[in-house]
Amino acid sequence: SLMETITPVVALFPSITASEGSDRYTERKHPPVIKQHDIASTLSVLTGVPIPKNNIGTFHWKLLSHFITKEEVERGAHEVMCFYNLEQVLSCLKSQFSWYDQTDGYKHYLMLKKHLSDSKTDAKDAVKECEKAINKMSEVLEENMSSYNIKIMMLGVLILAINVTVFGTWYFKYIMNDTNGSLLSIE
C-alpha cells in the first residue's frame, strides 16, 4: 500500500568511536544498506508468517543469524529460507512478465535446480546460487517498478502547461472581468 512504501525506516549507528584511554578516534565500518522490501521478507521469516505475496525482497541473513540457533542452522534453516524466498520472488517475476524465462534470474534458477538434482552439490554453494538468482530476479522487478517513459512524462507536462495557459487566460479574461463588473454595479 502507499503508506507502507512511503514510510521511512531509519537506524542510527555510531560511525566514529574513541579508543579506550586515548583521544584518537577510529572510523568504524558503516552497516550495510538494507532495502525496504528486504525488511518485509526478513521480518516474515523471523516471525514465521508468509512473505507478502508481491514482495520482491530477500531476507537479510546477517540480521537473521542473530536470531537463529546453531541447531536450526545445522538442520538447514538457511537453505530452506533461501529456497522459500526464491520461489516467492519467482512467482512475482512470472506474474509480471510473460518473458520471465528469458531473464538471467530464471536461467540461474534452472541451473540451480539442475545442480540440486546432483547429489554432489554443497549446501553452501546452493545457497549462494539461490541468493544470486533471487537478486537477479529482484533487479528485474525493481527496474520495472522504477522505469519511466520520459517522452510521455514530458508530453504530460506540456499538456498541463497548455491547459494552465488556456484556462488561466480564460479565467482572467471572462471571470475576473465579470466579477469586477458585478462589484461595480453593486456599489
Report what the structure shows:
By secondary structure, the chain is mostly helical. Helices cover 64% and strands 3% of the residues. It contains eight helices and two strands, in the order αββααααααα. A two-stranded antiparallel sheet has the order 1-2. A hairpin with a 6-residue loop joins strand 1 (16-18) and strand 2 (25-27). Helix 5 (77-96) runs parallel beside helix 7 and helix 6 (104-117) packs antiparallel against helix 7 (123-145). The longest helix has 37 residues, at 150-186. It is elongated.
Question: Keywords, please?
Answer:
187 residues, mainly alpha, two-stranded antiparallel ribbon, 8 helices
Structural class: mainly alpha
Helix content: 55-70%
Q: Could you tell me how far the N terminus lies from the C terminus, measured between alpha carbons in angstroms?
A: 55 Å
Shape: elongated
**What strand order characterises the main sheet?**
1-2
Percent range for β-strand residues: under 5%
